[in-house]
Amino acid sequence: MSTTWLITGCSTGLGRALAEAVLAKGDNAVVTARDVASVQDLAAEHPETALPLRLDVTDPAQVAAAVQQAEQRFGGVDVLVNNAGYGYRAAVEEGDDGDIQRLFATNVFGPVAMMKAVLPGMRERREGAIVNISSIGARICPPGSGYYAASKAALEGISGSAHKELEPLGITVTVVEPGGFRTDFAGRSLTQSDEAIGDYAETAGKRRKEHDTVHGTQPGDPAKAAAAIIAAVEAEKTPQFLLLGQDALAAYRATAAAQASEVDAWETVSAGTGFDS
Length: 277
Known about the structure:
This protein is an alpha/beta fold. It has one domain: NAD(P)-binding Rossmann-like Domain (Rossmann fold), CATH 3.40.50.720. It has 9 helices and 9 strands. It has helices at 13-24, 40-45, 60-74, 97-125, 137-140, 146-166, 222-234, 246-265, 267-271; strands at 4-7, 28-33, 50-54, 79-82, 87-89, 128-133, 171-178, 190-192, 241-244. The strands form 2 sheets. Strands 3-2-1-4-6-7-9 form a 7-stranded parallel sheet, with helices on both faces. Strands 5-8 form a two-stranded parallel sheet. Helix 1 crosses helix 7 (222-234) and helix 4 (97-125) packs parallel to helix 6. The protein is globular and about 60 Å long.
């Protein structure tokens, strides 16, 4: 029996690569994008197994309709991949309130809405998999990416609790932290604050779009990332946490080592905060 995947943000990048890989292996895929025309070619190539749908994850009506149509067409959603999202560059002081609210609506509340929409069916069947695409940025917190890192850290916190709630019901939750992959993330999908404060020129300012030189040169191959996600979902023991990319591995280990060193340095102070017996 074919597995049915519902993947958000399939117009380009990792979502597109994953949709192509899923369809190539003969599984069903609900391929979604805000501009449904951008995924119609996938449906034309795979008319029996691809369902193209318009989906803005910040629109509750579109979220509900997408899951309902997936269930009507394929009988249920076996794997949800929350891939839709975008980057935002600004020093913390520079961040625009409206920009921040839109960022969290897409990167946090949209994935939560998708999870809540598919979970009744997964719970009824006592099986399913949820994959939430985060970022190594949630861990390393680069200057100029505080709000983006916070949105991904929020998604990871929700995912961690959901994992513990859903594992006894036969449903897995996996957080994926990619490093730099050759997608549109640092190009079309990257936004930033209108305001740029001079005092941050040497920190957050260096990572503004006009100074960014990484777009198109990232080391990660989206097709290989897609294969890794499929392997994780289909593994006998699906991981709760998956790093993608040598850069992500190195950054994770460096950050963990630095934090452990600081914990050790302040151990006496940390341990000395209890009531004296």
